[in-house]
Structures are given as structure tokens and as C-alpha cells.
Amino acid sequence: MSNVIVLGAGMVGSAMAIDMAKNHNVTLTDLNKSVLDNVKLKHNSLTIQQLDVTNKIELQSTIKQYDLVICAVPGFLGFKTLRAIIEAEMNVIDISFFPENSLELDALAKEKNITAIVDCGVAPGMDNVILGHYNEKMKLTDFECLVGGLPKEKKWPFCYKAPFSPIDVIEEYTRPARYVEHGEEVVREPLTDCDYVEFDKVGTLEAFNSDGLRSIIYTMPHIPNMKEKTLRYPGHVEYVRVLKESGFFSEEKVDINGNQVSPLDFTSKILINEWKLGETEKELTVLRVTLKGENANGQTEEIVYNLHDEYCEDTNTSSMARTTGYTATAAANLFLEGLFTEKGVFPPELVGKHEVCFNYFLKYLEKRNIHYIKSSRLI
After folding, report:
1. Predicted pLDDT of residue 148
2. Where would I find the beta strands (DSSP E) of the chain?
3. DSSP label at residue 24
């Protein structure tokens, strides 16, 4: 049994802490004491501690007492927090999904002789694990990931609820989307190139450009075609684009009766109630990963993994917390069990390339009733 500290007691952070507490001593930290108290009321086995991760000295002295750090802070704090953890010579599993390139910290992690596994969610996360596995077995030509978190109830106008803050969602809608086509990196506007895609149990969804490839642009440069798209219910994109094109996502402050206000801050405040996912509100996660390439027999093969996961009523845990958080706790446990010991910064594709790690992820998730269903065909 190891001593584990989880930074961030949000929806995903608390779900990870509860999952890790099945086999380890876990301390859950957050700046917000009332959030911690709420989690403690439901799960008494957790130790809670108020902690400000922006206070580097306090952060580093606190985490030194543990065997492993799991970082689930908001994206805008992620890179600085991860760097501070690495500087403190602590092994870490990170799901903060910051916009910066985590591989910039690889040299520092090697120098400090620690392991940092990053982007350990559903996507980025399990799609990378699947890609890393098949990259070892096939000569891949194509990789596509379609992914979305959706409410069960479609409420007009957006038909969407966010398991995290609106400002983080809006960031997905404003950051240019990077793809790889014919071996060249191309940049597209987010919320464009909409396709309608059919999914069992859900029906038709809208897929649009988003910047989800992240590390694989750098770790898998030999694959000529790679893209990631976000899924929403049909109609969502049009309403969001209206807001975007009208300037509601601008960070440039405007004067309102003598007060300087950022349209983005205003929009986030307005949308936080419209998009806020209720604590026990039913929602689901849909993912489809498609790989194409030459298999070991020299045949062109297409491999597809589908995920359909829903809110768990037995544990009152959201699907997004389950599919994201349990991927990270799988990584934490396989590290603590000594199945991955390399030093440096590792996105999931560089962990999933190892057969034992790939199988561990799938089995760990299956035990928690999260099933990635594989199909394949020769083409």
C-alpha cells in the first residue's frame, strides 16, 4: 500500500482519489475547503488537506511526504504545477490537460530521475494508449479519434453540459486545430469541417475540428494522416459559432459604464449555469478510434474501438469522471506495481506501446465497467 496525494478535488480529481483509496492511503487536496469537506462527507476513508498549488514552496514540501502525485488541477495551472512537481523529484500522473507541450519537461524529468505520465484521460488518454499499441504491430497510415461528453437530456439551445468550467470548454472552441494530412501538419479553425456520424444508443452526432492530437504530432510523425474531432448533438456548433463570431469569446476588455470587462469572462459567467452539470445528472461519453494500416501479414486493415459509457448510479459517478479519472488511476497503479519504470515525460502512447501496459489499462477499466469494444476488417 502506497501513500498517494491527489491535487485537485473537482469532479475527476475526487473520483480518482476515491478509486485510489481502494488500495492505497490517499490524501486529497484543494484550495477550496468546502469542496474537500463535501468529498470527505461521502468518502470518510480519504484524508483531506487544503493546499494552494500556486505556492510553490508549500506545494513541494507537501508532496515530498508521498510516494506518488496525481495532478488534476485546472488546465491553466497545469504546466507550472507539473514543472514544480518534477523539480521536487516526485513521480507524477497528470490529467490537467494544459495547452503547453508537456514534452518540453522531458529533459528535466530525466535529470531528476522521475517518471511523469501525462494526458491520462479518455481523449487524450485511452485513444493514445490504443494508438501506441497498434503502432508497434502495424505500419499505420491513418488515425482518427472522435470523442464527446454529452448530457442524456438535450436541453435547448446548446444541448450540452460541461463536466468542467465553461472557460476550459470555450478554450477548445477557440484554439486552432492541428491535424496531420499527407505527412504535413495543417492548422484549421475549430468548429469547422462538420460531419454527421452515427453512433449506437445515441444516434446522429456532429463531429467538428478541435485541437486534440497534442503529443502524437511529435511522437508519431511517421503516420501520414491523423485527426481528432469533438462530438456534440446536432445544432450545438451553430449556436457556439454565433457567440464566437459575435465576439463573446474575446479576451480584449471592453468598457461598460466605467468597468473594464472581458467578453470571455462575461460569457463564462453566463454559461456556467446553462452548462453546469448537476452532481447526479445523467450524462455519457462516446468515443470512436479508427486506425488503418498494413498489418503483419501485409494486408490493409482497419481497426475500430468504440466506447459508450454512462453515468454510474451505483457509485453516483459521472461518465466523464469515470472514463477520464480511471484511465489515470490505471496509470498510477501500473506505475506503483512496477510495470512502467522509464524516466522522463510520457504521453499515454509511449506507455501503451508496451503490451503489458496496454492490457493493464483495458482490464483495469473493464473491472470498472468501462468497455472499449474492438472491431476490425480487411480493406
Report:
1. 95
2. 3-7, 25-30, 47-50, 68-71, 92-94, 115-117, 139-151, 177-181, 184-188, 195-199, 203-209, 225-232, 254-256, 259-261, 283-294, 300-310, 344-346, 372-378
3. S
Q: Three cell numbers at 272?
A: 456556467
Q: What is the rounded CA–CA span in Å between residue 258 and residue 274? A: 28
pTM, full prediction:
0.94
Longest CA pairwise span in the chain (Å): 70
- All structural domains of the chain with their residue ranges: 3-121+320-372, 126-310
Q: What does the alpha-carbon distance between residue 318 and residue 308 come to, in Å, rounded to a whole number?
A: 13
Q: What is the pLDDT of residue 367?
A: 97
Amino acid 370: pLDDT: 98
Tell me, what's the pLDDT at 279? 78
Element (H, E) at 9: none
* Predicted pLDDT of residue 95: 95
State which residues of the chain have pLDDT below 70: 163-165
Provide the CATH number for the domain formed by 126-310 in this structure.
Answer: 3.30.360.10
Residue 146's Cα: distance from chain center in Å?
13
Give Cα separations from 206 to 110, 246, 311 (angstroms).
42, 22, 21
What is the secondary structure of 117-171 as a DSSP string? E---BBTTBHHHHHHHHHHTTSEEEEEEEEEEEEESS--TTT---BSS-HHHHHH
User: What local confidence, expressed as pLDDT, does residue 163 receive?
Assistant: 67
State the DSSP code for 112: T
Pick the CATH number of 3-121+320-372 from 3.40.50.150, 3.30.499.10, 3.10.450.50, 3.40.50.720: 3.40.50.720
Give the three-state DSSP class for 66: coil
Nearest one of 174, 222, 201 to 285, comparing CA atoms? 201
Residue 94 confidence (pLDDT) = 97
Instruction: Give the torsion through C-alpha atoms of 242, 229, 219, 86, to 10 deg.
Output: 60
Residue 53's pLDDT is 97
Q: What region, left, alpha or beta, does residue 98 occupy, with left being phi > 0 and alpha being psi -120 to 50 degrees?
A: beta
